[in-house]
Amino acid sequence: MMLYLRSSVYAVLLLALAGCASHSPPVPKEVFIWQAPRQVLVTEINPKTIEPVVWQVVVQQQAGSLRWLRFNLLGAPDARQILANGKWRNDGFMPPNQKVRELFAALLFAWTHPRDLILAYPSPQYDVNVFMDKWVLKENSRLRWTVIWQNGLSQPNLFSIKDHKSGIIWQVRPLTNPDIK
C-alpha cells in the first residue's frame, strides 16, 4: 500500500512538472537570416505593465549557430542563448528564460527572407502569410506573431512584432549609439 501511494505521488509530481514545461517558440531547423543587424534596440510594450522597457539585443553568427544576447541599457546582460540545429541552449550561467527565447525566435522570424519563410516554417504546423509590409505566422491555426514593417521593406530594420500569446509588442530599431554595450 505504501509503495503504491509513493508511486502515485511521484506520478502526480511528474505530471505537474510536465504541465509547467513551456512550449518552445517556433524556430526553423535551418537558419535563413536576411539583413539581420547584429545589434538592435528593442522596446517592449507589455499591456500588463505601465512603462515600456528598452533592451539591447546582439546576435552573433558562429560556426553553425547563432549566439543571442540581451542587455539592459546599463550594459548588464540578462539573457544569453545559443540557437543551433533548431534547438536553444544556455550560454554560460544565465538561467533559461522562456520569455526572452520568444523574443529571439520572433526576431529570427522577422529576419528570415520572405522566399525562405515557407521552407523555414513548413506546413502543416505553421501557416505563413507574407504581405508587402506585414508578415504573419500561425502555429496550429492560432496567431503566433505579426511583424509590421515601418515604411515597408525600404527600411528593413524598423519594425514591430506582436506576440499574440502574451499581447506584448516589441518595437525594433537599429542601434544608433555604438557606446551602448
General description of the model:
Keywords: Signal. This is Lipoprotein. It comes from Ventosimonas gracilis. With 181 residues, the protein is α+β, with helices and mostly antiparallel strands. It has one domain (2-174). The protein is 22% helix and 36% strand. The chain has a 10-stranded antiparallel beta sheet, with helices on one face. It is globular. The relative contact order is 0.17.
Fill in the keyword field for this structure.
181 residues; alpha+beta; ten-stranded antiparallel beta sheet; 10 strands; disordered N terminus; Lipoprotein; signal
Helix content: 10-25%
Global Rg: 18 Å
Number of strands: 10
Question: Which shape, going by the Cα principal axes?
Answer: globular
Strand order across the largest sheet = 5-4-3-2-1-10-9-8-7-6
Number of DSSP helical runs: 3
User: Ranges with pLDDT <50 over ≥5 residues?
Assistant: 2-22
Approximately what portion of the residues adopt beta-strand conformation?
A: 35-45%
Spell out the helices and strands N to C: HEEEEEHHEEEEE
- Give the tally of structural domains: 1
Largest sheet: 10 strands, antiparallel
End-to-end Cα distance: 60 Å
- Coarse structural class: alpha+beta
How confident is the prediction overall: mean pLDDT? 80
